[in-house]
C-alpha cells in the first residue's frame, strides 16, 4: 500500500503543470491533497478525468482557500469531512477515509501567519485535532498525513537559529503541539526510518531561489498509530517532483 501526501497550493494550478502524469508516475494507492484552493465542484472538474481512482474533497466556506481531498484506488467504507467542531470546520482542513484496517486522515493545519495572529487559533486546532484522532484510534489505527505547518526539530529546517521563536512554523507553541502528537503515540514515519537524515525538506519559499539552494523546511508529515509500526516499509520525501512550493511525501505499508 503506497500512500502519498501533497500540499498542491492550488489543484487547478498544478493540473496545468501535469498533475495526472505525476500521479501516474508515482502510482499511489491513495494520494491525499491539501490546499486545493477550490470548491468541491471545481475539484471534481479537475479530477473527473483521472482514471482508476475514486475521489472525495472538503472545501472551505471561503472560495479559493484551504481545502483537502483524498484520491483512492480502493473505495473507502466511509468518508467523513471535518472534526465536528464548528469553529474548526469552516476551512475544509480535515478529511478522513475509513478502510477495513485503518483510517486515513488528511490535514491542512492552520498557518500561524507571519504576524503570528493565528497562533492561538492554530494551538486550539492542534488540540482539537489530536482529540479527534485519538477518538478514531479507539476504533482502529490511524494514518494521518498532511501539512502540519511546523518544523518539529532543528534538523527539520535549514536555518533553525534564525527562525526559532521568531517565525511561524518554528514557534515553541507550535513545536509543543507537534510534541503532543508524538507523545500521544503517533509516530513520525520519516524520523522513525531516517532519524538523523539532514537537508530533507518538503517546503521551500518561492523567494530567493530557496528550492534550488535547498533552504527548506520539513513541515509535511505522515504520522501513524504505534500498532502500524511493524507494517511500515518506507518513508520518503519526493523532492524531485515539482508543481507546488511543497513536494509530495510518501509511505509504503505492507
Characteristics:
254 residues, alpha+beta, Deoxyribonuclease I, Chain A, six-stranded mixed β-sheet, 8 helices, 14 strands, 26% helix, 26% strand, globular
How would you summarize the topology of this molecule?
Layout: E1 2-7, H1 11-15, H2 19-26, E2 30-34, H3 40-47, E3 54-58, E4 68-72, E5 78-81, E6 94-98, E7 103-108, H4 119-137, E8 142-147, H5 160-163, H6 172-183, E9 186-188, H7 189-193, E10 203-204, H8 210-213, E11 216-217, E12 220-225, E13 232-237, E14 249-253
Parallel strand pairs: 1-2, 7-8
Antiparallel strand pairs: 1-14, 2-4, 3-4, 5-6, 6-7, 8-12, 9-12, 10-11, 13-14
The number of distinct helices, counting runs of at least 4 residues, comes to 8
> What is the global morphology?
globular
Spatial strand sequence of the major β-sheet: 3-4-2-1-14-13
CATH architecture: 4-Layer Sandwich
The CATH superfamily is known as Endonuclease/exonuclease/phosphatase
Cα distance spanning the termini = 6 Å
How helix-rich are the residues, as a percent range? 25-40%
> Domains counted in the coordinates: how many?
1
Amino acid at each position: 500500500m503506497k500512500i502519498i501526501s501533497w500540499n498542491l497550493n492550488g489543484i487547478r494550478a498544478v493540473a496545468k503543470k501535469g498533475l495526472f502524469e505525476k500521479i501516474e508516475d508515482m502510482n499511489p494507492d491513495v494520494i491525499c491533497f491539501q490546499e486545493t484552493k477550490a470548491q468541491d465542484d471545481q475539484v471534481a472538474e479537475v479530477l473527473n478525468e483521472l482514471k482508476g481512482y475514486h475521489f472525495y474533497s472538503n472545501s472551505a466556506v471561503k472560495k479559493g482557500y484551504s481545502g483537502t481531498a483524498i484520491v483512492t484506488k480502493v473505495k473507502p467504507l466511509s468518508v467523513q469531512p471535518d472534526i465536528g467542531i464548528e469553529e474548526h470546520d469552516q476551512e475544509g482542513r480535515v478529511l478522513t477515509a475509513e478502510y477495513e484496517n485503518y483510517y486515513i486522515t488528511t490535514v491542512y493545519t492552520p498557518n500561524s501567519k507571519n504576524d503570528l495572529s493565528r497562533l492561538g487559533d492554530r494551538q486550539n486546532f492542534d488540540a482539537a485535532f489530536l482529540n479527534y484522532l485519538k477518538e478514531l484510534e479507539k476504533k482502529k489505527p490511524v494514518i494521518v498525513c498532511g501539512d502540519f505547518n511546523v518544523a518539529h526539530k532543528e534538523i527539520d529546517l535549514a536555518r533553525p537559529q534564525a527562525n526559532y521563536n521568531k517565525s511561524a512554523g518554528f514557534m515553541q507553541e507550535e513545536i509543543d503541539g507537534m510534541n503532543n502528537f508524538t507523545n500521544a503515540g503517533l509516530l513520525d514515519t520519516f524520523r522513525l526510518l531516517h532519524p538523523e537524515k539532514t537537508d530533507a525538506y518538503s517546503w521551500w519559499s518561492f523567494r530567493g531561489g530557496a528550492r534550488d539552494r535547498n533552504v527548506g523546511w520539513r513541515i509535511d508529515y505522515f504520522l501513524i498509530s504505534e500498532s502500524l509500526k511493524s507494517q511500515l516499509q518506507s518513508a520518503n520525501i519526493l523532492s524531485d517532483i515539482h508543481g507546488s512550493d511543497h513536494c509530495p511525501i510518501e509511505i509504503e505499508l505492507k
